[in-house]
Amino acid sequence: ETGVTQSPTHLIKTRGQQVTLRCSSQSGHNTVSWYQQALGQGPQFIFQYYREEENGRGNFPPRFSGLQFPNYSSELNVNALELDDSALYLCASSFRRDSNTEAFFGQGTRLTVV
Amino acid sequence: DQQVKQNSPSLSVQEGRISILNCDYTNSMFDYFLWYKKYPAEGPTFLISISSIKDKNEDGRFTVFLNKSAKHLSLHIVPSQPGDSAVYFCAASRTGTASKLTFGTGTRLQVTL
Predict the structure, then answer these.
(1) Secondary structure in 3-state letters for chain B
(2) Closest Cα in chain B to A9
């Protein structure tokens, strides 16, 4: 059974550019959530995808968007990058969107915007 | 608005002693609580959870206590080991919104020899 994997592990982008981060969910999991963790803070919920549809969104602007594919892998896209977007981006997968089960996290992608 | 709070940014405990990490929440709709451990350069790792229908859940050296009236939970680690040194995050969610977690800011635990 493979865990949650994210790519790339590190990324440097220039302000105004666009970025795509990728996540492969744990085998058997159909729900993927994305989180942003700024330095010294806890992870903040960006959005969740269930069966290829967005299923809830946190307090993030529309330039943060995502996709989930039929194999339950997912992408996070951020347009018009700002310096404050520099953070660790975490992907988490879980078995069902409506059950109280733990979410399993990937190792994260460290994004630096310069 | 910080709905989940971990007021102690750091904690130092001697090996073999008890570590107690605390967490407070303000949203009374939260009914499922989790603790995650995070090492540098790794994603958070699930430790233990508790539903609001319980007040205690135990798993080996880890016990989580929930006081709903005080909107407070704590994680006890007994005995503490050097490998427990990490950042611990408390997280909360509502039934039907699994994995839409609200996290605290974390407590860095240092277990000393």
Answers:
(1) CCCEECCCCEEEEECCCCEEEEEEECCCCCCEEEEEEECCCCCCEEEEEEECCCCEEEECCEEEEEECCCCEEEEEECCCCHHHCEEEEEEEECCCCCCCCEECCCEEEEEEC
(2) B41
